[in-house]
Amino acid sequence: MPRNLFAAALALAGALTATPAFAVAGMPNATPIADRVDGLYNLIFWITFVIFVGVWAAMAYVLIRYRYRPGREAKQFHGHTGLEIIWTVLPTLALIAISIPTYKTIRYVDNAPKPDLTVQVVGHQWFWEFKYPDNHVDVSNADLVLPANRVVKLLVSSADVVHNFGVTDFGFSMDAIPGHINEGWVYLKAPGEHQLFCRQLCGTLHAKMMAKVKVVPDAEFASWVQSKGGTYTPGEKSAQAAPQANAAEQAAPKQVAAAPKKADGAALYSANCASCHQATGEGMAGTFPPLAGSEIPNGPAAEHIKIVLHGKSGPLTVKGQQYNGAMPPFPQLSDEEIAAILTYERTSWGNKGGAVTPEQVKALR
Ligand code: CUA
């Protein structure tokens, strides 16, 4: 009888596992990341459900089968190799079953497809600022307007204290930290409206730090950008623009870009540096210092190499402007690649810093 009970529980769990992923109650999944995260949580839920049923069924069996009955005497014994193997192997399998899809999901979230648009989100006490550096738009205390069916790169930071950029429908939230850029991406599946909250207690008006996310079709987005004095030319939708289809597998842009056969300074720059310092080397006023005509690319090579190898934080002045340094280190790039990037930076946009060799980089690593 208990064996039948166990089989029935397994069959029930199996049937339930086959049900599709559901969203957080009443919240639509606006992005493929939300779908994946939900799918992962449901999978883990059902795995733990099966374990729960198995453990309780075994316990019920033992309680009933070996209950006290008059005239029976309990036997004492120690050790059972078979049981010990089972309770080592089964948890190991359960952990493997959970870790593989978890790793895949993390990889999917981490490997942003090639973006069609970059939006910089800056938390302030107590409002949000949204900058569209490629489109020359900067809005504060307003809706976050985004095009549907486009890969949007998010650069989240803060101007004062730690905030958190949280949109439930996106399936994730990101800390907005002063002096640090958190990178993420969204691909909004359909036009619609979503609620943005600040999810980090950041002062007296924290609760008021909300905004709407308005997702609109391309054409409507273009006219919104225009109404804000900017430009938006929707490009061809990239092959990765349907991240539903295994974007994690096809899109590992950083790794691919970082290992070209011959180190190509311009290509490496656009893959690693341009999202902050811009393709023009002009940076972004007040956030990312310019490289064009500025002190570092025209000064001693050693300083320049150290900044790329080890990063740079804290206040700094570039071309008379104050910045809060948030440059991450790039130790993953090879000596040849860093030399190529630095040579490109030091000889482009009118810079006269001169070439850097891989040997110089190696000496400072
Ligand atoms: Cu900003 Cu809470």
Could you characterize what this model shows?
With 365 residues, the chain is α+β, with helices and mostly antiparallel strands. Helices cover 40% and strands 20% of the residues. The protein contains twelve helices and twelve strands. The strands form three sheets. A five-stranded mixed sheet has the order 3-2-1-5-8, with no helix packed on it. A five-stranded mixed sheet has the order 4-10-9-6-7. The longest helix is centred in the N-terminal third of the chain and has 34 residues. The structure holds dinuclear copper ion. Dinuclear copper ion (CUA) binds next to loops. Dinuclear copper ion binds next to loops.
Topology:
Elements: H1 2-17, H2 32-65, H3 81-110, E1 117-124, E2 127-132, E3 137-140, E4 144-147, E5 151-158, E6 163-167, E7 172-176, E8 182-187, E9 192-198, E10 210-216, H4 218-227, H5 247-250, H6 253-258, H7 265-272, H8 274-277, H9 295-298, H10 301-310, E11 312-318, E12 321-327, H11 335-347, H12 358-364
Parallel strand pairs: 1-5, 4-10
Antiparallel strand pairs: 1-2, 2-3, 5-8, 6-7, 6-9, 9-10, 11-12
Helix pairs in contact: 1-2, 2-3, 7-11, 11-12
Bound molecules: dinuclear copper ion.
Dinuclear copper ion binds at residues 123, 126, 163, 198, 200-202, 206, 209.
